Amino acid sequence: MTVDDFLAEWHNADDFITAHTSGSTGTPKVIHLLKSDMLASARATNARFGIGARSRLLLCLSPDYIAGKMMIVRALDARARLTAIEPHRDLLADYHGDSFDFAAVIPAQAQTLADHPDRLARLATIIVGGGPVSPELESKLADLNANAYSTYGMTETCSHIAVRRIGIDRHYTTLAPTTVSADSRGCLVACMPHLSVGEVTTNDIVDILSATEFRWRGRIDNAINSGGVKIIPEELEREIADLLDVRYYIGRRPSPTWGEVPVLVVETTDMSDRRRDALLAALRSRLGVRAPRQIVTRARFEETPTGKVVRVER
Predict the structure, then answer these.
(1) Residue 28 burial by Cβ neighbours in a 10 Å radius (0-12, 13-18, 19+)
(2) What is the separation, in whole angstroms, between the first and last Cα of the chain?
(3) Using one digit for the tens of pLDDT, what is the confidence trace for 59-87?
(4) Are strands 148-154 and 126-128 parallel, antiparallel or unpaired?
(5) In sequence order, what are the beta bridge partners of 100?
(6) Of the N and C termini of the chain, which has fewer Cβ atoms inside 10 Å?
């Protein structure tokens, strides 16, 4: 889809836009988003980041997905100037025009910016969505004093409902007027009076700090019950970030003794027995009973269209 394609759909007689979920937590699906909800979401973001008629916005994500669509709606609502470039991981490599006030990027693009500070300097503010920000990327952006924010949201809520300043905050703060609470499972419940959906109960395990602040811990879908111990993979992944220099995640395998056990899945084709044994020992030392029982290697991880790693357990 091009920007013109989206604008044609935006200005047609329908009161909704057709969008696709990312597929990161299940099979991608087609949904209808009300244009009024998209405008309300755009206004919340524009208000939070001071986007107005003089702002210069960069569209570097495909309008096929909600993140790209919402950049266009933000520009329309604010009457800001929008520049669209080809969606690519190697962001701004071939662009030599003006700098920008605001852009939405995926983690892979943020990594490119962190590796090329001259490009990052051309973006006053970036929001990073579509997948978790790795500790390594967070550290790089923090060292560069980037005005970068990790976002929390979903397609169904028309993009993000909360943001976290990378390198500064450990918790997310909602965009007004959204408020949050937790259900009996410890999962986030978001109340959004400005959206038609009203309230959404998620599968994200959180610590609620206030009505507008929460700390994200991980997905309940990914939680591992090993001998009565509840293990949240995303927390382990953050704890072991300094032990690996390649992509990885914590998966699970069935166990006749423990029910389930965690395993470390690593994206590599070069894992010697010696390295494997040393890594397992380091994991046991750091994580104790939560440590992965084995290491699984894969030549290349599966990814969603936005570059998010698909956790495969087999």
Answers:
(1) middle
(2) 35
(3) 999 998 899 999 999 999 999 999 999 99
(4) parallel
(5) 123
(6) C
Alpha carbons 195 and 158: distance in angstroms, whole number: 9
Token pair in block for residue 105 = 């990027």
Mean pLDDT (whole number) for 89-104 = 91
What is the rounded distance in angstroms from the CA atom of residue 225 to the CA atom of residue 257? 12
Q: Which two tokens stand for residue 184?
A: 């009996």
**Pair of tokens at residue 68:** 């790209």
Q: What is the pTM of this model?
A: 0.86
> Which residues 6+ apart lie within 8 Å of 118 measured at CB?
none
* Alpha carbons 180 and 247: distance in angstroms, whole number: 32
Decide: 108 and 307 in contact? Cβ < 8 Å: yes
Q: Which residues contact 86 (CB under 8 A, 6 or more apart)?
A: none
Asked whether the beta carbons of 211 and 173 are under 8 A apart, the reply is no
